[in-house]
Amino acid sequence: MKLARTKAELRAELAPARRAGRSIGLVPTMGALHDGHLSLLAAARDRCDVVVMSLFVNPTQFGPGEDLDAYPRDEARDAELAERAGVDLVYAPAAGEVYPPGFATAVEVSGGLVEVLDGDPGRRGSAHFRGVTTVVAKLLNAVGPDVAFFGQKDAQQAVVIRRMVRDLDFPVEVVVIPTVREGDGLALSSRNAYLGAADRERASALSRALRAAERAVAGGETSAAAALAAARAELEAAGIEPEYLEARDAETLAETQTFNGRPVLIAVAARVGAARLIDNVLIGGNP
């Protein structure tokens, strides 16, 4: 496995594979790798000739008061896990390489995708997604992958990136891999490290809430409000007040009142102890 710190090194390492027509897969990460990341790397390894993993804690997607400084970082551990997973090249740039002095450009997606859920002005805000789309656009340009892999846990992020790729004609296929969960259903996240034992147990209520909504729909419920009420009851039983618990069209993120055959994303965010956690379930297949 090779390590590149600069765009020049990255492109030099990839040049022989590109000349040979080998397929390149990219897995963007902020490190603190867990089994969810490893599932993305496995999918890339299975699909592509060359696997690139980016390792960069992107400062522009953290808002004031968020956990940028506290975000877990262990490059040596991440590199070891990446090598075991069959990664060919890790791109681990410094912030100054990604955002050099005088950097003054941003990529922003609108269309109602970044103003809701996490992008609501009263929550993380649309600037969060501006940070995400800008850094992903830069990674796609730097790596030039044929396929890029993202996780379903960050469902809104995946929707936004798909729209950016479509609208800006990036020659890349976006693949979204299902959420990997603990045995009790808790979605794997780097922020789970912030949970104490009691809060870790409470946090499993997020996945139980989503399963309750799924069961309601499977039982014939067509009202989104009723399915959300079933989910909310699970959260209340665990003493969790959600930041949001909403049903949204899985492609447009427009608010959904009924289950009418189109894929619906039920998404939840909540602060549990020191961790802000998100999770979701897709009802009705792939968007």
What string, H for helix and E for strand, traces the elements in order? EHEHEHEHHEHEHHHEEE
Biggest sheet overview: 6 strands, parallel
Helix content: 25-40%
The helix/strand class is alpha/beta
Count every beta strand, where a strand is a DSSP E run of 2 or more residues: 9
Give the C-alpha Rg.
Answer: 19 Å
What multimeric state do the chains show? single chain
- Ranges where pLDDT stays below 50 over 5 or more residues in a row are none
Strand residues, percent = 15-25%
Shape label: globular
Strand order within the widest beta sheet: 1-4-3-2-5-6
Mean pLDDT across every amino acid position: 96
Distance between the termini: 35 Å
Number of helices: 9
Any chance you could write out the topology, listing elements then pairs?
Layout: E1 2-4, H1 7-19, E2 24-29, H2 35-47, E3 50-55, H3 75-84, E4 89-91, H4 95-98, H5 126-143, E5 147-151, H6 155-167, E6 173-177, H7 197-203, H8 205-218, H9 224-237, E7 244-249, E8 264-272, E9 275-283
Parallel strand pairs: 1-4, 2-3, 2-5, 3-4, 5-6
Antiparallel strand pairs: 7-8, 8-9
Helix pairs in contact: 5-6, 8-9
Written overview of the protein:
This protein has 287 residues and is an alpha/beta fold. It is 37% helix and 18% strand. It is built from 9 helices and 9 strands. The chain has helices spanning 7-19, 35-47, 75-84, 95-98, 126-143, 155-167, 197-203, 205-218, 224-237, and strands at residues 2-4, 24-29, 50-55, 89-91, 147-151, 173-177, 244-249, 264-272, 275-283. A 6-stranded parallel β-sheet has the order 1-4-3-2-5-6, sandwiched between helices. A 3-stranded antiparallel β-sheet has the order 7-8-9. It is globular, with a radius of gyration of 19 Å. It starts with a strand and ends with a strand. The mean pLDDT is 96.
